């Protein structure tokens, strides 16, 4: 039972970060919350004993994709509805 506590904490973090990604009007904050979600997914893969998938998810999902989102937000308006 004690080994399930980290999984429940990661699951709670996933739900919170997904809700934050959806509700933020600031696109930079939404991109960072999405990066947090990707990082937590990679942590869950590691807990489930899939370290190769966890490393790939951390590198591509949390690292590269978040960087591309931040660059895209810089090129456009920072807040939703801004031109």
Could you characterize what this model shows?
By secondary structure, the chain is an all-alpha fold. The chain has one domain (about 1-75). It is about 80% helix and about 0% strand. The chain has 3 helices and no strands. The chain has helices at about 5-25, 25-45, 50-75. Helix 1 packs antiparallel against helix 2 (about 25-45) and helix 2 (about 25-45) packs antiparallel against helix 3. The longest helix has 25 residues, at about 50-75. The radius of gyration is 14 Å and the shape is flat.
Structure summary:
With 83 residues, the chain is mainly alpha-helical.
Would you tell me the structural class of the helices and strands?
mainly alpha
Which residues form runs of ≥5 with pLDDT under 50? none
Mean pLDDT comes to 92
- The number of helical elements comes to 3
How far apart are the first and last residues' alpha carbons, in Å? 51 Å
**How large a portion of the residues is in β-strands, by DSSP E?**
under 5%
> What is the string of SSEs from the N terminus onward?
HHH
Main beta sheet: none
Cα gyration radius (Å): 14 Å
Helix content: over 70%
Number of domains in the coordinates? 1
Shape: flat
Number of strands: 0
